[in-house]
Give the backbone structure.
Amino acid sequence: MLTIHADSRGRALAVDGAWIAEAGPLEQLVDAFARARVRQWPGILTPGLINLHGTELLEGAYHPDPREADTLGTAPLTGDALAALAPDDARWGASARRAVQRMLAHGTVAAACEDGEPGRRAVRDAVRRSGLATIGRLGRPGGVPSLDPYACGLPVEFASLRQAGSAARFAVFDVPDETALATAGAGTCVATVVEGRIVHRRR
C-alpha cells in the first residue's frame, strides 16, 4: 500500500512498500498519488540516524530488562559490572533486542560495527531480525557511546535518503527544525520507519 508521510512543514515522502517512490511538497505528492494514504506527523521528517557506536552499545553493554531493575538498575552495564554479570548467549540476545528497540526510539536506522556486523551470533541474529541495518567502520570512534547520537560528542551522521528509489529509512522528530533537533536531541523522536515499516511510534 502506498503511503505519504508528511511533517508539519509540508515536506513529504511517498512510500511504496520498502521504497521511496517520490519526495516533495505534500500537495504535490497528494496530486501525484491520489489513492495513497496520508499520514501526517508533528515536527520534522529527516533521514534516519546512524549510531557510530554499534559495537559498544550492542556487544560492549548489557541492557537490563525492566524486570531486572531492582537488582541491575536501568542503565546499560559496562566494564566491571558487565564482567561480573557474565551474560550467556540468551541474555546477550535479549539485551541486543532491547538495545535495538531503544536505538529505533531515537530515530536510528543503522549502527556502525567493527567488521560490519556484531561478532556474537546471538546479538547478530537479534539485530538482523529487527531490520536495523549495520555498516562497517574503521577503528573505534571517539566520543561517548550513547543511544542518542546527538549526545555522543561526534558529528551526527544520517542514512542516505535520495529523492526516489532508495530504501524507506527515515525518522520524525517533534521539533520545529534541524537546529532545534541538534539542541533537544534524538529523544524527541516520534516515529522511525525502516524499509517502509513503522518500527517505532511514540505513544
